[in-house]
């Protein structure tokens, strides 16, 4: 059951960050001059949305032990990989569709920052699963 704590942490981190990204990238597409304000809103939202996942990661590390059978890590690992793939595809699709030419570089930069923020907790969760291997 412990591997699913890391899956829950990654899920609770990725989906709010993707929601914040979607809302803020739409604002940036409409008015590229608000780049600093939109990026500030994203950072504050990410900080607030990662509180519970970080607490779950700490709890998972406190309870961590090696599993007796590696097959118990397959499903959580696959879920985490699909979560990472979904986040990357979602961010790239939002960055490529409906972007005005004058905002293309700002949205690309904003998308890369958002991707790094969205993938931080899932990468920690994947490393945690690797640490649980027998």
TrEMBL record:
GO biological process: proton transmembrane transport
Chain ranges passing through the membrane: 6-21, 42-61, 73-92, 112-133
Domain of life: Bacteria
Keywords, in A-Z order: Hydrogen ion transport, Ion transport, Membrane, Transmembrane, Transmembrane helix, Transport
Protein name, entry field: Uncharacterized protein
Species of the source: Virgibacillus chiguensis
């Amino acid at each position: 059951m412990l591997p699913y704590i890391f899956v829950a942490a990654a899920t609770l981190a990725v989906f709010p960050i993707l929601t914040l990204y979607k809302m803020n990238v739409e604002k940036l597409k409409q008015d590229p001059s608000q780049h600093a304000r939109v990026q500030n809103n994203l950072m504050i939202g990410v900080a607030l949305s990662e509180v519970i996942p970080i607490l779950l990661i700490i709890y998972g590390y406190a309870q961590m032990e090696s599993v007796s059978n590696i097959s118990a890590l397959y499903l959580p690992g696959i879920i985490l990989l699909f979560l990472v793939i979904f986040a990357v595809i979602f961010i790239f699709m939002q960055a490529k569709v409906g972007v005005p030419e004058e905002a293309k570089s700002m949205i690309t930069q904003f998308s890369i920052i958002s991707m790094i923020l969205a993938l931080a907790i899932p990468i920690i969760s994947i490393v945690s699963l690797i640490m649980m291997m027998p």
